[in-house]
Amino acid sequence: MTDQTHDLEMALAACAAGDRQGLRRIFDDEAGRLVAVAQRIVRRRELAEEVVQEAFIRIWTHAHQYSPDRGSARGWIYAIVRNRALNLLRDGKREDLVGEDRLETLQDGEQLDQIMASFHKLDRNSRLHECLGSLDEIKRRGILMAYVGGYTHGEIAGRLKLPLGTAKSWIRRGLSSLRECMA
């Protein structure tokens, strides 16, 4: 376990005990990256900041639910941010103000290339790289689009030119295979 992982676990334990300094340590260490993750999903800085603020409230009120046996502290924290961002999109409380020039950039696959590049940036010796590499290309692409790019199942189906049900089931089966491999 790295020092940073241990520090996050200790900070979550402090939050669970009602120590505000624990939340402050998490904020100081992770807030910038959390905003970047949320912004990739919701595509607007002010909404990303709102997502992270809501996530920190949830971290504070639910820190007692974190269990190191079920995953890393960082994974738990980032999952909260990701879920908050996706909920914001699902609730339709977001207006996507995209200009014509930006729309062309989104459509030309540049963003998809960046998402796929994240797989290649993983440490080649890591278990995650090995497990993602064992998946079919289409399942790996769908999972990365959902969990790195923040795409909805509908967006993934459209970009991969698949029926929605097929995209959902491939992502679900891919995640199942990934969980099994990581265990």
Automatic annotation (TrEMBL):
InterPro entries: RNA_pol_sigma-70-like, RNA_pol_sigma-70_dom, RNA_pol_sigma70_r2, RNA_pol_sigma70_r4_t2, RNA_pol_sigma_r2, RNA_pol_sigma_r3/r4-like, WH-like_DNA-bd_sf. The keyword Transcription applies. Residues 127-177 form the RNA polymerase sigma factor 70 region 4 type domain. One of its GO terms (molecular function) is DNA binding. Keywords: Sigma factor, Transcription, Transcription regulation. GO terms for biological process: DNA-templated transcription initiation. It holds the Pfam family Sigma70_r4_2. Residues 28-94 form the RNA polymerase sigma-70 region domain. Belongs to the sigma-70 factor family. ECF subfamily. NCBIfam families: sigma70-ECF. This is RNA polymerase sigma-70 factor (ECF subfamily). It comes from Rhizobium soli.
